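Quick note —
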Amino acid sequence: MAENKTGKTVKATKSVKMAKTVKTTKAVKAAKPVKTKRAARTTKAVRSVRSAKKKDVKAVTPPPPRVVYDIDAYSPQKIAARLDAVAAVKAKDSPAVTFWLGVNAGVFIALGAQFATLVISDSGLHAGLTAVVGAICFCLGLIMVVVGGAELFTGNCMIFIGYMDKRITTRRIFDHWTISLIGNFVGSLIVVFFVYKAHQFSFYDYMVGGKALLIANKKVNLTFPAAFSKAVLCNAMVCMAVWVCFSARNVADKIMTLVFPIAGFVASGFEHLVANMYFIPMGIILKGKPEVVAAAEKMAGKTLDLSNLTWNGFFVINQIPVFIGNVVGGILLAGLAFWFIYLRPKLNFTFTIKEDFKKD
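Predicted structure written out below.
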């Protein structure tokens, strides 16, 4: 009996324990989904809060500023600063680079000169209008120099701004001018050779050659004061063309700013050193062509005196006074003047006036 009772009790205790374990497991299972639901709700709430914050931030952030292309020209102060920087760049160029860029400039100017000669050779317009048309055609040379990149001696007088601002040394600026000038002469003679070999002088019954001969002969018959004065005015306008060209922001603006100053000095008959390196040698070569001389005399209406149209007349009568005048006009009237106005150190002067009698 006792054994059966203990066995029952054992069974009872086992059943009770089983029931308890089942209840606890059920409670645990029932508790787990409740926790997951709360976690899901909290994550959803956090996400909703974050998304709401992001939406609020996007709504508050201002739109990025629009970049507008500036089409206004550079101010004179900025032009002077740009030319000053160009002088520093040119100071680092090697002599070989300066020479070949000088050759390019001589070629470009000579091409513009022959273009102008061709256009005005048979013009039936008034003399002034003919000069304007030829001057506009001559602008081809300066446009190619500025846009294409070349070292033109007359325009390089503007780098005197950098010399005054100590961006380029005395030796380097004289080397740059000398080497570029030699390159300009070589480039001009190259075009003279090829234009002559192309027989362009025979166009329109030798009228092109006749016009070239008249232009050259007129230049070697100028007096020293006349050649010097015309050269001063010429390079002042050339450097002014370079100055206004540096105010431009694109190629079209550069071309438009160049046309009027360059056309102005050509139509006015001023003397350009590098342009004369094409005009006069071409005239010296054409002097030996009887057909060209006859066409020139027909256009002039008189017999021509060609005694000064020689290499001596080219170097002594024309190039020396024109060289001096171009240097004076480019340095004094352009480079030094603009440096003094915009880049010189500011000078402060104070004056004190001593009174003769003190006031009571």
